[in-house]
Design goal:
Order of helices and strands: EHEEEHEEEEEEEHEEH
Largest sheet: 6 strands, mixed
CATH class of the largest domain: Mainly Beta
Structural class: mainly beta
Strand order of the largest sheet: 9-12-11-10-8-13
Strand content: 25-35%
Oligomer: single chain
Number of domains: 2
Helix content: 10-25%
CATH topology of the largest domain: Archaeosine Trna-guanine Transglycosylase, Chain: A, domain 4
Radius of gyration: 23 Å
Length: 273
């Protein structure tokens, strides 16, 4: 198979990542996809390898062992050929005899993964990469990880023209550590007080900081910026801010370039300063 580079989204570590890669490389791997779905099996295909044309059932997993952990062994159909396509072969010895495993990350398949280069947003605006402060005390003692599913993050950090282009990345900082990031899906700036029911309902959503007031609309601390986000990620372990060789601004905010963001993510070597 010819070595190719594929730019991917979603990120590594998710089953959707394998679904994305397999859909691109199925023909190169010797399969003709008949159907892809979310229910078991993820994929029905024709196995064209070795000059054959046999129908097979394919389950897409990030790690091979997930086939067992997700209960698919009990769902296997008697008389059918089952194949697990995964990115990591971890735990493949746990699979039942006769289940073939295709590990996409193995060099024999020639698949290389590269990050998106720096791009402009769909509106043509230049994407913004910004560090802003996180205060767990102000957030009711909750760590940043508690907000994974709130889908909205409030802040009074000032952005140029009170806008944030879709696709911008916000990195969170607390006490000398970079603790996580989120990707901007939408940004709403609401002056005090909110004037429409939409603005009022948006502000009532419990997010950062967590307010104990029954009606946040009349809460003393008014936060104007509302970041609706996707691709929430907690850095585990957190990243020492010192790798940037810069000082955090007094306002608790710092612009980054794309290379610095990649360095924080561990995808670019730390430059000696």
């Amino acid at each position: 198979m010819t070595r190719k580079t594929t730019y991917v989204r979603p990120e590594l570590g998710k089953e959707e990542f394998v679904r994305h890669i397999f859909s691109q490389y199925a023909k190169d791997l010797g399969f003709e996809i008949l159907n892809i779905q979310k229910a078991f099996p993820d994929c029905t295909a024709i196995d064209l390898r070795n000059h054959g044309s046999k129908k097979v059932l394919i389950e897409l997993e990030y790690e091979a062992q997930n086939f067992v952990q997700h209960g698919h062994v009990d769902q296997m159909v008697e008389g059918e050929t089952h194949i697990v396509v995964c990115w990591s072969g971890k735990g493949m010895s746990l699979l039942p005899p006769g289940v073939e495993v295709i590990v996409l990350s193995e060099k024999q398949y020639g698949i290389e993964i590269a990050e998106y280069p720096e791009v402009e947003s769909i509106t043509g605006e230049k994407l913004l990469y910004r560090i802003i402060g996180y205060n767990s005390y102000m957030a009711g003692g909750r760590p940043f990880s508690a907000f994974e599913n709130t889908r909205i993050f409030r802040t009074n950090i000032k952005f140029k023209d009170d806008t944030l282009p879709k696709g911008s990345v916000i990195v969170l900082y607390e006490k000398g550590w970079l603790i996580g990031e989120m990707t901007v899906s939408y940004y709403v700036y609401i002056e005090k007080p909110p004037r429409t029911e939409v603005e009022k309902n948006l502000y009532r959503l419990v997010t950062y900081p967590v307010t104990i007031d029954e009606d946040p609309v009349v809460f003393d601390t008014w936060l104007k910026g509302h970041i609706i986000y996707s691709d929430f990620k907690v850095y585990d372990p957190p990243v020492n801010f010192d790798i940037l060789g810069r000082n955090m601004s007094r306002g608790g905010s710092l612009n980054l370039d794309f290379d610095e963001l990649q360095m924080i993510r561990g995808k670019k070597k730390v430059e000696k300063r």
